[in-house]
Amino acid sequence: MPNIYCGREVKNSVRTALLACAALCLPAGPAIAQDASQPGDESGGALSQIVVTAQKRAENLQDVPVAVTALTQEALTGGGVFDTTDLQVAVPGLVSQQLSNAFIPYIRGVGSNNPGAGNESSVAIYLDGVYQGAKGNNILDLANIERIEVLKGPQGTLFGRNATGGAINVITRTPGFDPEISLELGYGRFDEKTVRLIAGGGISDTLAASVAFNGKWGDGWIKNIAHGGKNANPFVNENVMGKLYWVPTDELTVDLSASYSYVNDPTFAAIHVSPGTVPIAEGLGGLTTKEALETATTAPTIYQSAETIRATLRVNYDLGPVELVSITGYVKGALRQLREADVSPLPIQLVSGGAHSSQWSQELQIQSNNSGPLKWIAGLYYLNFKEGLGRPPYAVQIGVPSPVRPSDLLLPGATVLGFDTTNNTEGYSVFGQATYEIAQSTRVTAGLRWSHEKKFAGGDQFLYTAVPGDAGDSVPFSNGVLGNDGLIFGRFTLATRDLSETWNKPTWRLALDHDFTDDIMGYVSYSRGFKSGGFNSAPVNPAEEAVSPEIIDSFEAGVKSELFDRRLRLNMPHSCTNIGISRSQRSADQVSRGWRMPPRRRFMESMWISSQR
User: Cis peptide before 300, with omega less than 30 degrees from 0?
Assistant: First the structure.
């Protein structure tokens, strides 16, 4: 029997009332709204139209039979949203957390809290149409953003893989031909400094370019009591993106972008003792923490960094009745860390080493380009995604100082366990969706996708050893140093693996929507999402069975309305979701139901009040 969960997203009515009263007493500022972007040019005090690409074509939000929240750059900035980890303050139904360097989102309760390689998210993240597979590189900077669309519920037809909970689609700004430059500077607690710089303009009549830089630096707020009270979590977040927009003819447009980002935030490596627990170090007479904002480490400096390189090429060609679209994406990431695991300067346990990822994808679309009763899109998709532990090997250090010398491995009880693993995915899919107006003001939508995915798991698990030899023959060790005693790091293999598994699954979407009036639309839909199974990154088990796929069926009914001369936007989706949870050691089914009613109101010429009930 499936487990039944019934719930409603609720924001305290008293809090909402207090916020509304506060808004009436303050100058109006940018509003962050459910199912709404920041208002632009309104006519007669009405709310502006919102354009989204939830169905991979530009459409009015109120005409799309999908639950979507859309936010512009102005709304993000006004709400203090700096990167993807902040999105939950602006998007009802989205809850997220940060584990190590990984962004872990949940939409309507569906998500995956394993940040390791080989365990992809149940909420797909897209940047300019390119899927971002590595969780550890998905803390996306949100500078130079045109808008963000958060699609709720399975998106298995048009967005495909790993969108069982929904999808977060980040769309960056296309360069304009008019010169522009903007600079924002900020300063806050703990010596936090922020910079946002955007510059761009036309290079010729057909070519425009832009460059954007976003940076955040701070001293942190966690004190390391084992090293004189120095700050343990100074952080850096830097991102630069360049874009080219080429329009050689009226029919052809080319968008090319490249970006580099570096994040080093050891906050989640500077762990502290939870109330009511007794750390191992205290029982051994070692120094340990007592306060929530304290840590104690063996190494004087800890770190947790992520570097990411991205490139995207999008080509649109208008053939009149149809439009051709090509989206090519490349992403390469590297993670590095040195973190304490026992909250003390005693050499009990540290974790060091790295993780790596690389992917390239290609999507080809052909879609109708007319205003007739039939609108359709079809496409092909390919993904090659590799990730794993290593480069240098991921190491669990037990009973050794930091940094580690080969001779330290000869101490009683000293153990350093290494992992050098790979988790690779190769996926193909074909998809199509069509919407037909079967009667005046009534439309039916049907979509189907077939996905083929093959997962590979390789690599080994080993013990670091001390052996005589030349420095050039030493096994890589990120937290290791060589002495003058002629010893180097060797390895003793404990286990190896060479595993693979293949899945073939169809997913689909059916929807019916009807315009009751010019301002009120209702819809019902049924959709299925699919997330393939996989293998854990560690420990290495040559007999490991693949994690089962995750399949979700969702039934949704909703109303989208604009009332009082478009001064009130009230969208009310209701969903019932049957969740087949993927498992590593257990399995379960779950059914969840919930109402969401996100109103947005405009009371005065320059004031908006939004709430979620």
Answer: no
Residue 358 CB neighbour total at 10 angstroms: 17
Q: How far apart are CA 324 and CA 316, in angstroms?
A: 6
**Residue 529 C-beta-side C-alpha neighbours within 13 Å:** 30
Asked if residues 610 and 601 have their Cβ atoms less than 8 Å apart, the reply is yes
Nearest Cα neighbor of 342 from 303, 413, 288 is 288
CB 166 within 8 A of CB 54: no
Characterize the bridge pairing of strands 223-224 and 294-295: parallel
Question: CA 357 to CA 444: how far, in whole Å?
Answer: 41
Q: What is the pTM of this model?
A: 0.85
User: What are the C-alpha distances in Å from 448 to residues 398, 451, 506, 514?
Assistant: 51, 10, 7, 22
Give Rg (Cα) of the chain: 26
In this structure, what token pair is assigned to residue 78?
A: 């006004």
Q: Where are the beta strands (DSSP E) in 469-486?
A: none
End-to-end CA gap in the chain: 31
Are 400 and 347 contacting, i.e. CB atoms less than 8 angstroms apart?
Answer: yes
Task: Return the percent helix, strand and coil in the chain, to nearest 5.
Answer: 10, 55, 35
11-63 residue pLDDT tens: 333 333 333 333 323 333 333 334 444 444 445 567 778 888 888 988 888 89
Nearest CA to 11 out of 3, 2, 20 is that of 20
Q: Classify the phi-psi angles of 147: left when phi > 0, otherwise alpha if psi is within -120 to 50, otherwise beta.
A: beta
